[in-house]
Structures are given as C-alpha cells and as structure tokens.
C-alpha cells in the first residue's frame, strides 16, 4: 500500500527494517533486506527525499527512521494538499471554459456552427462516430435518459470495433442507475475506458482532439449545441477534461473512505459545494442526486462530527482538517 505514496518496493523494505532494527548500519540492513549496500544507499536517498529518515542524534553519521505516525502522515497530508490544489485548478478551468464557450456561442464562423434541436445534434454525433479516426472523448454530467443512451450505443460500439479509443466520464451518481451502469459496462466490455467522479465538467464530446460539441445552454442540452473547431477552445476543453479524468475512478473500482476522516470523495465534494453557499437543490444538481439525498448525507456527516447544525458541522470539519 505504501507504493501509492510514491515509495518503491525496496525503499519500503528498508524503511520497515530500520523501524524494526534502529541500530543497524548499511551492511546490516543489506543482509536483512537481501539488497546490496549500493541499493541500500539508493533507498536511503529516496527515503531522505520523502523525509522518512533523518540524522541520528544518538549515533552520529547514521540515519534513523522517522516514526510512521509522523512521516507517513506528513506524506498523506502533502498529497491531500496537492489534490486540493488540482481540484481548485479544475474549478477555475471549468469557469474559464464556461465563459469562453458562452462568449463564442452567439458567433458563427468558419471554425464552428450552431446546431439547433436534438435532431441536428444527433445527426452530428452520428457523423462524429462514423468519421472519428483515433479518439472519442465524452463527458456526461447528470443521469442520461434510456432513449438517449440507446441511440448512442450502436454508433459507439461501431467506433470501438474500428479501433477508435473511447474515454467516457460519468458522474458517480450514474453508478446507482441500472440503465446508465449497463451502458457504461457495455462500453467497458468492448474496449472503452469509463471513469466516474462526484462532479464532472459540462457535457462535451471531443473527436480526435480536433473538434468538439458542447451545449449552447449547459443547464439544458436539448436547446442546441455548438460545434467548435477553433484550436484555442478545443485545447481548453481538452485540458479541462484531462484534469477531471486524472482524478476520476475507473468503473468497477470503488471509492474507499478516507482513513483519516471516514469521508468518501463524494461526501467531501458535497461539503465543499455546500460550503460555497449552494442550496441543497443546487448541490444535488451538481452531484447528480436528489436534494433529499443531500439532506440524508449531510445528516450522516453531522452525526459523525457530533454537530447539531450545518454551521457547527462546517466549523468542526474545518478544525479537523476534513476540508
């Protein structure tokens, strides 16, 4: 498990040996771990960079292992801080892309066009599926209707059969709807890659990293779509997708509770959204769940915190470092 924190297998072995035998030098560690002295030195350098070893006061010239409760906890804290920074970057990128698309939505140029009505959108999606050469990227916020997924199934499978790479990003809420989960598993079984996240960017389809389809109105994708081919906008959409994809979980893998807080990623995102001032209904829409589910999940979080109000829960969550 420590490999997930960036430690090599050999470094983990040496770290454990140093904890068990604090007085051992390089030669003894080499014998104990089945490694050469050179490998021990490399592992000590690695552990030193991660601040898991430090100079011994009692034995000058030797290193000692830092207690896991301190060293490993600090590593987890640094990774959590990095993740929070990436999530903040994602939120900023989402807002920038939304503004950019909105600014361009009223314009029609040689680089894109407006598609009004679901028939026009469906026709363009079918054309994309037939003409894609290397990759199809799809982001699906909320829960799609069964008929919309049925319309997409055949063309997506045909593209996969031609060898086109397909990356599909759904919200975590989709795992709880049988028709969406069945569609996602179908893509997965035919070679597609499917991931989910508590919140995802706006709906988009990107073909061969060169052209994209985004809704004119992000709150109602049935009003129409904008077909974009301008490199600047397509690149911004790709960066937004890549950030969301890199923090999403592959379909079939669960989202384990955070061992330090007992929170899932979904619950942490809910706390964050409500902390920004969103109502239960607005937060539920962002997460793809009903507002009654939001209330039930918040009640569970408040019980774990021993809080009698949401305001108190927010204060206690911040004090414990949950946010």
Automatic annotation (TrEMBL):
Annotated ranges, domain HTH luxR-type: 256-321
Domain of life: Bacteria
SUPFAM superfamilies listed in its UniProt record: C-terminal effector domain of the bipartite response regulators
Gene3D superfamilies, per database record: Winged helix-like DNA-binding domain superfamily/Winged helix DNA-binding domain (1.10.10.10)
Pfam families cross-referenced by the UniProt entry: GerE
Family matches, as InterPro entries: Sig_transdc_resp-reg_C-effctor, TrmB-like, Tscrpt_reg_LuxR_C, WH-like_DNA-bd_sf
Record-given protein name: LuxR C-terminal-related transcriptional regulator
Species this chain originates from: Kitasatospora cathayae
Lineage: Bacteria, Bacillati, Actinomycetota, Actinomycetes, Kitasatosporales
């Amino acid at each position: 498990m420590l490999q997930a924190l960036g430690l090599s297998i050999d470094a983990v072995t040496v770290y454990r040996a140093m904890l068990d035998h604090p007085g051992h030098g390089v030669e003894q560690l080499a014998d104990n771990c089945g490694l050469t002295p050179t490998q021990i030195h490399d592992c000590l350098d690695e552990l030193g960079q991660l601040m898991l070893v430090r100079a011994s006061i009692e034995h000058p010239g030797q290193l000692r292992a830092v207690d896991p409760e301190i060293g490993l906890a600090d590593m987890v804290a640094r990774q959590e801080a990095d993740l929070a920074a990436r999530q903040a970057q994602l939120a900023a990128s989402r807002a920038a892309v939304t503004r950019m698309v909105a600014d361009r939505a009223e314009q029609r140029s040689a680089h894109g066009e407006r598609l009004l009505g679901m028939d026009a959108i469906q026709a363009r999606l079918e054309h994309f599926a037939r003409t894609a050469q290397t990759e199809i990227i799809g982001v699906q916020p909320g829960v799609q209707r069964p008929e919309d997924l049925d319309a997409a199934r055949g063309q997506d499978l045909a593209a996969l059969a031609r060898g086109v790479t397909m990356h599909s990003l759904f919200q975590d809420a989709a795992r709880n709807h049988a028709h969406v989960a069945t569609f996602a598993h179908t893509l997965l079984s035919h070679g597609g890659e499917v991931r989910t996240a508590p919140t995802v960017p706006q709906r988009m389809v990107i073909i061969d990293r060169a052209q994209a389809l985004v809704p004119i109105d992000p709150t109602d994708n049935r009003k129409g779509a904008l077909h974009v081919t301008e490199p600047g906008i397509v690149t911004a959409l790709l960066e937004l997708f890549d950030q969301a994809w890199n923090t999403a979980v592959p379909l079939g893998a669960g989202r384990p509770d955070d061992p330090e807080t007992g929170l899932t990623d979904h619950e942490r995102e809910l706390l964050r959204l409500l902390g920004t001032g969103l109502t239960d209904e607005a937060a539920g829409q962002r997460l793809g769940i009903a507002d009654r589910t939001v209330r039930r999940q918040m009640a569970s979080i408040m019980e774990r915190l021993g809080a009698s109000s949401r305001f108190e829960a927010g204060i206690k969550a911040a004090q414990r470092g949950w946010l």
